[in-house]
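User: Hi! Is it possible to get a structure for several chains at once, not just one? Here's what I have:
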Amino acid sequence: MTEELAKHKLIQYIKERVPISENESEVITSYFELRHLPKKSFFIQEGQECIYHGFVISGTLRVFYSDPKGLEHVLYFGFADWWVGDIASFNTHEPTHINVQALEDSWILTFSKDGIEELFLKVPILERLFRIMAQRTLSVLQKRFFLTVSANAHDRYKELIERHPGIEQLVPQHQIASYLGILPESLSRMKKQLLHKK
Amino acid sequence: MTEELAKHKLIQYIKERVPISENESEVITSYFELRHLPKKSFFIQEGQECIYHGFVISGTLRVFYSDPKGLEHVLYFGFADWWVGDIASFNTHEPTHINVQALEDSWILTFSKDGIEELFLKVPILERLFRIMAQRTLSVLQKRFFLTVSANAHDRYKELIERHPGIEQLVPQHQIASYLGILPESLSRMKKQLLHKK
DNA sequence: CGCCGAGTTGAACTGAATCAAGAAACGTGG
DNA sequence: CCACGTTTCTTGATTCAGTTCAACTCGGCG
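Assistant: Yes, the chains can be modeled jointly so their relative placement is included. Here is the combined structure:
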């Protein structure tokens, strides 16, 4: 993975969403830095102030949070073209509660809090991009929330598999359980049941 | 409630967040319409295409969703200065799954999908306001999600009461149960337990 | 080869749902 | 202002989905 290739992918992504000039492209990329995340390494860890966000170029990340009992809850998996970071901590400068870890060797483009604020002034249309992104993320999270409160683990599992075929080859089973909000034991039992039914 | 008073409140709200000129203020308010919601009436009902959003001037609303079993799940309560609407349906033009109902006599300022897009072109700094709003809402929802998956009903109840003292005088108990993701019977039992412990 | 993380299986337990019935509060029309 | 019906809240008995704890298997990797 080279810096130029990564930045080209970022500009592609942006151009599909808002119009920007060649000149603006260069300004934008100058605010991003390529970073390699080896498997199992962390991009963000809870307790830190989260002054960086990332745009996933390649690989798979998990964004999760540890509860007071020590259980980990996966909020989402980050694939190529996803943004990862904690907006809450990013804005308030308080330590974050989330962790972002690479499930496999990954590459991300990062930007800082101060950098993006400066960039918004230079390329105001990015405000629009980030509004659309935030609104889209909000819709997705809302849907996830409704599913969590209104469907049982069984149906949530089926929904995930449908929406994300192939995820079971990519993500270990206990992490899928963590995404579904159940224990690995429960997921294991569920899958056995599904087999016997068919 | 008069149109002028409501619009004054909206401009107050906006000015606390982004700088706008007197001229822009007038343009903005021309895109909003005052609407009275009598108690129990609906602003949005599931199945409709949701082409309007609202800014709550006064009163209390509940934003909820009906699951396949017919149970209602409250996503949040809307008080003064909150925005209500379904971004997903707003963007995709598909029928919404949410309902917005007045719990008491309420007044809201509404704007339409087409209106806001036009307004973004005339007053681009509103993109910034809506980005910030969406990001803030996202943080709040994320926190609510984590609480839902990692804490039991007991702790979720205590958190709500702390964050929102007085809500029990404003919102009927079965709706609080619906917000917490439990049945009214369970909340009733929980409250009895809490009393006996003290 | 031995170890360690991942997954499976079993038995007992628990928080909340379900079903059912009654009591209290509310509001609407007479 | 009272009477009646409707909604809200309470209480009890039972059930169920998912947890907990513990033991065991399997596959990979140093």
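The longest strand of chain A covers residues 52-58. The CA atoms of residues 47 and 95 of chain A lie 5 Å apart.

User: Great, thank you!
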